[in-house]
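User: Predict the structure for this protein chain, please.
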Amino acid sequence: MADRHTTEKLLEGERLSGKVTLFAKVTILPGDELPYHEHHGETETYHILSGAGMYQDNDKIYPVQAGMTTFCEDGSGHAISCAGEEPLVFLAMIQKKAE
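Assistant: Here is the predicted structure, written as structure tokens:
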């Protein structure tokens, strides 16, 4: 089965300054998820634009909706799933940790 999510890179290459490695709009269709993964040497922020979902922050799970922002610390893990009947749409930004 094909993935039921898309990632549209909003900025790439030199426009990202080197510190930010991803700035994208992500759309997750109902019933899909971005599975749990960890970040090492970087952080990731999601800002929810529309829809509803469930966000896993390490071993804590809570609902998210439009207007909410999540933050995954360096060395931590997270996952997100679409929990509603409408697609979950959010901005995602991965930033390298300051040295």
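The chain is about 0% helix and 65% strand.
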